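Duplicate of earlier report; Glyoxal reductase input re-posted below.
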Amino acid sequence: MTLAAHLRFPKVPLSNGLQIPILGLGTSHDGGFSHDAIVYALTECGVRHIDTAKRYGCEEKLGKAIIESGIPRSDLWVTNKLWPGDYGYKAAKKACLDSCSQMRLHYFDLYLMHWPESLQSCNCSNREMRAETWRALEELYKEGVCRAIGVSNFQVHHLEELKEDCSVVPHVNQVEYHPFQQSNQLMGYCRREGIVFEGYSPLAKGQVLRNPTVLQIAEKYGHTPAQICICWSIQNGVVTIPKSTKKKRIRENCQVFGFQLEESDMAALGSLHDGRHVTWDSTHVE
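Output:
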């Protein structure tokens, strides 16, 4: 029997009534895509949430893998991201529609602004460019091309400005989140504002897997360090998207719903925050 036959991933409600699976599979550039791994995740592991971005360069290949899996489009949650080089009203709309075409999809379940700083040359501030770009996403949302819209790597001040400048509050903010980088102030703000908090790099690119506290807790529960960290993230209510191109790892990462960490172990993992980033740091972007 496949893992998919008995595994049902919990979902988290968005402010517009949609529900996003709390666990997904991320992709990335530089070897972060595998056709066979995507098909395996969808058909054998019950994964229904796939996260990608134009930046990763795998849209066309990912679209083919989704089709090959045979999973009905209505059963899937597909997230894509708008690269900062495509910011601005016209460029953003074109980029989204081009990404849909590349993936052979009629819509995205979630479309995110990838970064708070624009790579477009213009005589305007980052705030003005974010607002102009967001208005394009609002239109795509109203047109049904994007069922939900959000941002990635946005800090509180970016979200505050966007809320003042536009009419739709982002449904999701996707940021780096793992025991070493917890962003609790940002998480609290998002929850007060009805923005779902989503975390990428839950294993800190493997750095947490060697941590003595994580190893001790993993031994206690008879699970792998990766499963402990993913479980910790999910128990904190964070939509979590680990990345892997290895079938064994994907299966392992999906087997995190049969146990719960005790409060003392949640607290021990929570105490590991040291502020390090394993990806980009947008804290100082204006």
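DSSP finds ten helices and ten strands in the chain.

Merging into the original ticket.
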